[in-house]
Task: structure prediction
Amino acid sequence: QITLKESGPTLVKPTETLTLTCTFSGFSLSTSGVGVGWIRQPPGEALEWLTIIYWDDDRRFSPSLKSRLTITKDTSRNQVVLTMTNMDPVDTATYYCAHMANGPVFGYWGQGTLVTVSS
Amino acid sequence: QTVVTQEPSLTVSPGGTVTLTCASSTGAVTSAYYPNWFQQKPGQTPRPLIYSISNKHSWTPARFSGSLLGGKAALTLSDVQPEDEAEYYCLVYYGGVVVFGGGTKLTVL
Result:
């Protein structure tokens, strides 16, 4: 059974760096074809894909946010960490992590965590 | 910047059939873009419905089907039920980079 859960601060100040952790179970990020991605959704708005890290440590980023994003994995701890620099109130959103299997199949999502950017 | 476009809103009667589409600014959506479809109800996490054009997850109701239609990815709902009222998002995979469509709000009325 695949599960993912996001954790991190619920409130960050403008210009600060956000660090979110996705802790997962039921799969290994060392298995060929597997990835873990991050998606966000501002209140009342559409989903926006941010980044993904693959089993082979390949990383891809949204072109519009690439300069602000870092994604890393800790295979032994079953965790993926997202950092986003220079946070702004427009970055207020629910942040989700999701499992990707070869296909690509985005079949499993975490419950999401709401991050508010405010001074 | 690649843009994926969906109908902003659609309305369908209970028992009816409706098709939602997903277009890419780069041209025709083909099997190489592995489109996925998700359903999201208010306050809930997106629920995966379809992957790689037309493949269903084990939990996807039979009335949902995916296809390619006129250069777009398409999601067809047949025998629409009141509980199908939701926002629907497509996802297009560009060789490792992912783009979501803006979503279609489906009203069942």
